[in-house]
Every structure is written in structure tokens, then in C-alpha cells.
Specification:
The chain is an alpha/beta fold and about 160 residues long. It has one domain: Rossmann fold (3-Layer(aba) Sandwich). The chain has a 3-stranded parallel beta sheet, sandwiched between helices. It has a two-stranded parallel sheet with strand order 1-2. It is globular and about 40 Å long.
């Protein structure tokens, strides 16, 4: 897990926008996440920490799907990851995930009824962007401010 420049301000804003209902989730152990958060200068908000998310575990009854206009198949059925999310919030439709990996972070939530925001990184391929822009609950954000604006517009 790594944080981009400006992460502390972003996490503070996220924690304020969703007071008591914002979390950091990673495949890393919770202690490792806490340690990295402690290294973020300016972080003042206390967020829920969800570790060992097992995003890569695919035990699919549904199989792969290939949404129209998308060039690669997706495994939306990731029971360990979705199960951890449901422990945090029981209704996936009420969850918004912001991540840098469309296949592991964003698409499983988006294709199960939640909001999915892909945050641009140096490895963003580009083919994900039209699909996210066309999906009513999807969004592509070039930076933290764009992600926050989308969340503010769609906050229930």
C-alpha cells in the first residue's frame, strides 16, 4: 500500500464527508496499514481499517463477465473481498470504493451495485475510462479532488 502526495488532506476530507463511515481497505495486514497512516503528515481523521481484504480470491459461481464496450473479461464475484465490505456496510449498493486497480478494487463493487471510482496512476491503461464514464455508478478520477467531487454529488 502506498499513498500519493496529498493523501492526508484527501483522507481528512473523506473522513469528514462520511463521518464514521469511511475506511481504508487493503490486502495488507491492519498493523501495516496503521503504520503507513501514522507516517502521513497532517492526517487528523480516524478511519476504519480493514486489512487482509483478499481481493485476489476468485471463487466464482457467476464466472467472468465482459460488459459491452469493455475489452477484457472481469471476475465480479470475489466473495472474500465483498464479504469484508459487507461486514463494514451490509448493503453493497451503499458503498463507494476508490481504488487504483479496476479489476481488484473497483469492478467487483461496481458490478455488484455499488459505486466504483478508479483513481488514475502511472499504470492506468485507459481502456477502463469509457466504461467507467458510461456506467451510472462508475467514475474515473485523475486526482483526489475529482474523486471527492463525485462522492459529494452521489452521497446519500
Amino acid at each position: 500500500m502506498f499513498f500519493k502526495d496529498g493523501a492526508a488532506n484527501y483522507l481528512n476530507a473523506l473522513g469528514t464527508l462520511f463521518s464514521g463511515a469511511a475506511a481504508i481497505m487493503s490486502n495488507s495486514e491492519e498493523d501495516s496499514i496503521r503504520e503507513k497512516l501514522q507516517g502521513l503528515e497532517g492526517l487528523t481523521i480516524d478511519l476504519h481499517i480493514i486489512g487482509l481484504a483478499e481481493k485476489m480470491v476468485v471463487i466464482s459461481e457467476k464466472g467472468q463477465v465482459q460488459p459491452e464496450g469493455f475489452p477484457a473479461p472481469i471476475n465480479p464475484d470475489r466473495p472474500a473481498y465483498l464479504g469484508k465490505l459487507r461486514q463494514f456496510h451490509s448493503d453493497i449498493a451503499g458503498i463507494a470504493v476508490i481504488g487504483d486497480n479496476p479489476f481488484l478494487d473497483v469492478f467487483p463493487v461496481l458490478l455488484n451495485g455499488g459505486y466504483g471510482i478508479l483513481l488514475e496512476t502511472e499504470v492506468t491503461q485507459g481502456y477502463e475510462i469509457p466504461f467507467l464514464k458510461a456506467h451510472p455508478r462508475g467514475h474515473f478520477a485523475r486526482n483526489y479532488d475529482e474523486a471527492l467531487r463525485f462522492l459529494e454529488l452521489h452521497k446519500a
